[in-house]
Amino acid sequence: MQISSTNSITAALGSVNSTSQTSNSSPTLAYNQFLTLLVTEMKNQDPTKPMDPTQTVSQLASFSMVEQAVQSNATLTSILNSAALSQAGSFIGRTVSSNDGSISGVVVSVTTTDSGLIAALANGQTLPLSTGISVS
User: Fold this and answer.
1) Phi and psi dihedrals of 135, rounded to 5?
2) Cβ contact 109:116 at 8 Å
3) Rounded average pLDDT per 10-residue block, the chain, 136 residues
4) Are 101 and 111 in contact (CB under 8 A)?
5) Exposed/middle/buried for residue 91 (C-beta within 10 Å: 0-12, 13-18, 19+)
6) pTM higher than 0.70
7) Which residues of 113-131 are buried (b: 16+ CB within 10 A; e: fewer)?
8) Could you tell me if 121 and 103 are in contact, meaning their C-beta atoms sit under 8 angstroms apart?
9) Which domains does the chain have, with CATH numbers?
């Protein structure tokens, strides 16, 4: 007796793919998608060839470790952003100059981006606040 689980697993994969494409990726969502696929696979497995329980537990443990690493990275990013914002406040009202002296002015605001801090100067110019700048 052969039980075909291809349609059910394909349907589960389809719902997981459509969910992941329409929403922001998050560890919880990915974990829920993994569990959906695992449950679908277990429901539709061939009774004469069941899943190896050791392999299932190993997959869950591995996925849990990945989820914890992703959450740790998110926490670290949050801490780094907080430190950047604290540092940004110390530049406002100070004069900064680029390494080559081509850009100089008083900082009126600081924006945080993925690439670092960007100072908006009173003269309308912007300057990345990275190594090689002078602050007075």
Assistant:
1) -125, 130
2) no
3) 46 49 52 76 76 76 80 88 80 89 90 83 89 82
4) no
5) buried
6) no
7) eeeebbbbbeeeeebebee
8) yes
9) 6-83 (no CATH), 91-135 (2.30.30)
